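In practice, a research group might receive sequence data for several interacting partners and want a quick structural hypothesis before committing to experiments. The following worked case mirrors that situation: the sequences arrive first, and a predicted assembly follows.
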Amino acid sequence: MASSTTAAEVRRPSRARRPSRAPRPLRVRRHLPTSPWLFAAPGLVITGVFILYPFVSTLVNAFTDRRTLIPGKFVGLANFRELLHDDMFWIGLRNSTLYVLGVVPALVLLPLLLALLVQKNIPGITFFRSAFYTPVVASIVVVGLIWVWLLDERGLVNSLLETIGVGRVGFLSDQWLLLLSAMAVTVWRGLGYYMIIYLAALANVPRELHEAAMVDGAGAVRRFFTVTVPAVRSTMVLVGALSSVSAFKVFSEVYLMAGPDGGPAGEDTTLVMLVQRTGTGLTGRVGYASAISVVVFVVTVVLMLLVLRADRKEEA
Amino acid sequence: MPIPRRALVAAAVALVLPLSACGSGDDGGGSTDASGKVEGDITFQTWNLRANFKPYFEGVIADFEKKYPGTHVKWIDQPAEGYADKISADAAGGTLPDVVNVSPDLVAPLAKAGLALDLDKAAAQYKKEYLDGAWASHQIPGMTGTYAFPWYLNTGPLFYNKSLFKEAGLDASKPPTTYDELFADALQLAKKSNGKVATLANVPTIEDFGRYGVELMNKEGTGFAFNDAKGVELLTKYKELYDAKALDPQALTATPESSGKKFLTEAVAMNPGSALDLGNFKKQAPNLYKNIGITDQITSTGKVNMYVMGVMVNSRTKRTPAAVAFAHYVTDAQNQMSFAKKVAIFPSTAGSLDDPYFSKEDGTDETRVRIAAAKSLKNAVNYTPVLFSEQMKTALRNEVAKALQGKESPKAALDNAVKACDRLLQQQG
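A structural hypothesis for the assembly, expressed as tokens:
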């Protein structure tokens, strides 16, 4: 539609030409500065109440001796000094760190191999794709209980080991085997989730690259390292960052398999389990548990930065 | 785009308004005077009782509302799992119900925080209706007053698997009655089964130390004392059992539920329980039920352990007369007796245990267990100190586990446990 009206005129319509019953443009302009905030308000309020306030509250509590039913007073760095002398804190830090070291490499590599496997159009592969994803949607409590039954002294795994003459193994009574068993469950559970992420990344790898490498005589292993890995490297970094943060904050798997005390003598306690055990209940030490939470937060941020920095170095 | 000031103010108000509800709920509270007219709406919270006893509680509430026109009782039931966490969240948020089902260890921190009504002041006239020991069970060391009505008591025998005893060459008709006999039988069972059958599935708890005759706290109630020679002796015996696999290898991470399952699957030979368990055995493990043996709790003090449940009145209730009247009504002799006839629990009201229901045999195992338990309750003790918190239980379990694994000597483990529990006690204030 041709029009001789200029943009300036549209923005500033003259009183004489403005239709008397439709002052809409002016009204919209008047409300423009606040309107976005009104739209964002529900999200901001939810973020503020459920994320920002608990975060600030945890930070403040970390410097008090607050307990569940008794408001605390400011104690400065006393909680952090106590952490340094608390054996259970060091056990928690050790186990959470071991969890990252044990779980992350497996969760970066194995789902990629699995994704390569299920990417192929083999008859019946849809079933396996769904099967590999099932542990992700299953309840962690159900999954944990099933693994406890399997690994019990009289469970299926030990019965099989006994049948083949290995004898019973204390998967749920030895502190290291317990931690390894919990790691295995975390890896088994995470395979499907990260496999989906890799499948999306693999779909974007140009087929021509593989074909060119094949023409050059590269075998499957060579193509994996020279074509596939470089193509999905940024996804591997993402998986590494996501899995390292969740591995450091592990709770459910260890809690379900090692019990509320964190295994024999509490030797399998992770930092988040320690937060739960210290800060909850009627006599919970909210201040001290908050100090542990602050440490968990700082370590998590450092972990993320390390992974991202490693990625940047690789790129350079 | 610069953020308009009005938008900032609106966002701040929107953020702060909901948070103003997250305070401690310290609004001055209600009155300790329970002498006014019994009227108004109150809330009553029970601990995992709705599933099995819904009609009973609905009947009690209806009768109360009929007796006191103008009252209305809203009944809430919470699951067993995480009950303490639920109470602590309610207490911290100022939403604790008016009348709450508690155990002595739960009532202690609530009383210290000023959230439990002192019944010695508000309901002293009812004290004589209850057994002296039961009334005293909700008194807190270091504080004056009583902070909950005693409700039902429970104790139970020791169940054992006769067939496992026979297979080990033991006389199934003569179960152990002393600790020495128990340890000897356990070692024999483990030896004869090549370590496949353990006798016990749980590490010793504070209650076990008490039953063994260990002094748990000093006389002033200001510190723990279970690291004495007697305590070390018990832990040393358990270490021997653990090494011989007479104590289940998974005992270090066991819970009462998991050890109950081990007994059901005949992986362990003995397990403490109550008359309620007989029904479970019959239904879930008929083979075990055919071979079940029942014997008394083993104790060196002559007094068995009992568990006490109580009913607390929230000191912040706006309806003190109604709340006190209802808490007393639920726990009075008539209602406790009628509850005891529905489930294997025992009333804490004076004289109720003399009822023929607790003394007249009818030939069934259930009645035999009930009569024996009622008899033993007359001088039973709640060994678990009221101030023994969940964190203290964890500290003790962890040190006991270290001793059993041989990482520490029993003496060092108990010294460390006492030190940790004393520190937690001081932090409780």
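Before designing any experiment, note the following. The longest helix of chain A spans residues 87-119. Confidence is low (pLDDT under 50) at residues 1-19 of chain A.
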